[in-house]
Amino acid sequence: MAIPIIDLGRQYAQLKTELDAAVLGVYDHGRFILGPEVGCLEAGIAQLSGVEYGIGVASGTDALLLALHACGVGPGDEVITANFSFFASAGVVTRLGARPVFVDTEEDSFNLDPTLLEAAITEKTKAIVPVHLFGQLADMDPIMEIARRHNIRVVEDAAQSVGAEYKGRPAGSIGDLGCFSFFPTKNLGGSGDGGMIVTADKELYELCKMLRTHGEKPKYYHRIVGYNSRLDTLQAATLLVKLPHLREWSEARVRHAQRYDRELADLPHLTVPKVMPGSTFHIYNQYTLRSRKREEIIAGLREREIGVMIYYPVPFHQQECFADLGYAADAFPVSTAQAETVFSIPVYPELTDDEQGQVIAALRELAA
Ligand SMILES: Cc1ncc(COP(=O)(O)O)c(C=O)c1O
Predict the structure, then answer these.
(1) Distances (CA, A) of 326 to 16, 90, 99, 103, 141
(2) Which of 220, 244, 268 finishes a domain?
(3) Which pTM does this prediction carry?
(4) Measured in angstroms, how far is the CA atom of residue 86 from the centroid of ligand 1?
(5) How far is the CA of 245 from the centre of ligand 1 (A)?
(6) d(CA 253, CA 261)
(7) Which terminal residue of the chain, N or C, has fewer Cβ atoms less than 10 Å from its own Cβ?
(8) Ligand 1: does its nearest atom lie under 6 Å from the Cβ of 46?
């Protein structure tokens, strides 16, 4: 691929000396499980998120699973989430024995439409999981207002939005708990799986901490049945090297996005993504365009060896594993149309001006 959708090698080359030393440092002290780097990263991510506590876990998926478990979600409960997201946002609900309830998305943000939220609430609703898709926060003010009025917990799926802001407030600080992923392609990506829960609530913090080590407190005394889900010390050590660069990397993504906006917005067969009014820092984990000519454009990009991905081709209500939820095929027109038209192009910080120029030139040919 001449211009891949993401090139992690470039980031490694930039930080190789520090990353290698950090990894070897862990081998030197040998505390592979919950070593000192995990605590340092938890403090760093909590500070970035404007809350007191961070709990490092094995993945973003597990962050959501443990956070919802800590909210008391279980059999008989319902959890509301957006119909258009990465699978984990809904899969974790089913894994806890609860029922996922889907809400359609906003046309312009790809995020849960707050005007449809209240109608989805029942006496069984235990939690709401707004997803901050592609690096932009959902419209949290109305979501929180509705949740508080109904006494329902809010778990932010901020897997794609570490460091992003809504009305100046950081992702993860607005709901009861926030969940991040350190999957390698995220803005802050590890060298494997990793995740973190953040919260300002001490009780929820204690509960999540217990849940990640089989519900024990103290060691070998199990108050509840939990999981084995810890962020590896090796991952924490590499993420600590990267954390100070997160802001500048996200700002580079914003610059790329702004150039795409400027140079692609006039094309008749393309719709560029929008920054919503409340979104004070969109971190562009993905730059996601829409087109009714998507398949043709994607084929043309691939021919030119330009990386392109569809995030995500199938809305939740059409996933085979959710067939028993009984949603009609046309129940969610906005997210269904989004799944049919979206595609994402390279926006990683290390993308050069020349490479971006080639992506733009290709799209100007293909979407004219
Ligand atoms: C929106 C969203 N939620 C949850 C996850 C799950 O994170 P992980 O892959 O670290 O389990 C991801 C990332 O893959 C994601 O993009």
Answers:
(1) 50, 15, 12, 14, 30
(2) 244
(3) 0.98
(4) 6
(5) 21
(6) 12
(7) C
(8) no
